[in-house]
Amino acid sequence: MGTMFYGSARTPVAMPDDTLLLLKTVSSTKFRRKEGFMLSWVDSVDVGRGRSSVWMHDECDLHFAFESPERLPLDRERLEAMSVQAASGHGVELGDASLAAAPKPRR
Predict the structure, then answer these.
(1) Which of 32, 68, 74, 81 has its CA 20 to 30 A from that of 16?
(2) Partners of residue 14 on adjacent β-strands
(3) Taking phi first (over 0 means left), then psi (-120 to 50 degrees means alpha), and beta for anything else, what does residue 99 get?
(4) What is the C-alpha R_g of the chain?
(5) Does residue 59 contact residue 41 with C-beta atoms inside 8 Å?
(6) Which among 38, 37, 20, 33 has a CA at the least distance from the CA of 78?
(7) Beta-carbon neighbour count of residue 26 at 10 Å?
(8) Distance from C-alpha of 85 to C-alpha of 93, rounded to nearest angstrom
């Protein structure tokens, strides 16, 4: 599990490394265009049982910390799904089924 730290308070948001890579890629693309978007997730039990949302924009403090030292391949289908969400009114919903990794083939 990787972690995105948001804002000067460094609020941690844990997610799988592959999802963190997608979020980093979508964020950097949106920020270069001076566009923001809403990011929402279900809080961990350590924080509570609610949901949280933050406004992602080009001037917010972000730190993307990946668990794995290796670069992961970018899943283009999932990247497109997250990009579409980021451009929508409700923003990116972490944990959304449309952002889930494709199931691995059985051997």
Answers:
(1) 32
(2) 3
(3) alpha
(4) 14
(5) no
(6) 20
(7) 23
(8) 8
